[in-house]
Amino acid sequence: MPGQPAIGVTLTAFKGGQAKSTTAVNLAVLLAKRGLATLLVDCDPQCNSSGLFVRWDEVKYSLRSAIVPREPGEKPVPIESVIQPTRIPNLAVLPASFELSLLDKEMVVSANWHTRIQRALRPIQNEYQFIVFDTAPGLSHLTLGALAASRYFVIPIAPEVWAGEGLRLFMQWIQEQQAEEVFDAQLLGLLATRVEHGTRISRTLLQQLRANHEYLPAFETSIPKRVGNEDAVQARAVAGEPASDPDITAAYERFVIEALKRIDELEADKGRHRG
Ligand SMILES: Nc1ncnc2c1ncn2[C@@H]1O[C@H](COP(=O)(O)OP(=O)(O)OP(=O)(O)O)[C@@H](O)[C@H]1O
Ligand SMILES: [Mg+2]
Prior knowledge:
The chain is of the alpha/beta class and 275 residues long. The protein has one domain (7-274): P-loop containing nucleotide triphosphate hydrolases (Rossmann fold). It has helices spanning 20-33, 79-82, 100-108, 116-121, 141-148, 163-179, 200-211, 228-234, 246-274, and strands at 7-11, 38-42, 84-85, 91-94, 130-134, 152-157, 186-192. It has a seven-stranded mixed β-sheet with strand order 3-4-2-5-1-6-7, with helices on both faces. α1 (20-33) packs across α9 (246-274). It is globular, with a radius of gyration of 18 Å. The structure holds adenosine-5'-triphosphate and magnesium ion. Adenosine-5'-triphosphate binds at residues 13, 16-22, 44, 46, 48, 136-137, 193-194, 223, 225-226, 229-230, 233, 248.
């Protein structure tokens, strides 16, 4: 709703390569295509998601520029100067850079470090309906900062050995952070990615997600594995563009519809509790 603070959604996972960036980009692009003003914030120094929209060697400012002054005593760069428009209408991007690796360390020594990203985004939070955060794998301070700026998080999970064990430990860590009031973002759902129907490991993953649904909600949609995804990344093509994979786009469209429905329900619940 315009005039209301944007709803933040973080993509996070303990294990690398679970399709966080792929999901963040598809979510952001498909929200924008529905006419919802969306900002994609890349919190990963690998720059995988913002790299599809801006050339990293042309990025002058990143999230770090809006938080840490270039010289002591100076002010950080205004957030509006860091955000870049993209070729997709309704989608803007806050690019990452290699410097984010430094920010991860700097955040620890600053006061109220976990709210630094949230505070940096405050001046523009009413200009967007959604802010999608892509994060690096693991337990970085930047990821905590993104979670503290979010109302919801989504955990993508690919059919891989150890993915389940990593998830269990990661959820335990998240619950500890929630108990310590570092953030109160809520799990929107687990999303099965790179699913190959017909393989035992994919079947096992889908069965486990269904079995745990009561404790850890999972999306009904799963994202199929398609070799075309690598070609799309190489062509820097995103959902709907000619070089993108139509099956992957269709699956992410179903995911976005489900995600919006869940957000509506959860927001209505929160409204009822407040009222
Ligand atoms: N549905 C899919 N089908 C085929 N390949 C996919 C699919 N989704 C993602 N990939 C590929 O899997 C790899 C990991 O995906 P991605 O970069 O999105 O994961 P990530 O969780 O962001 O990784 P990292 O932990 O390094 O940030 C990439 O090479 C990506 O192109
Ligand atoms: Mg990534």
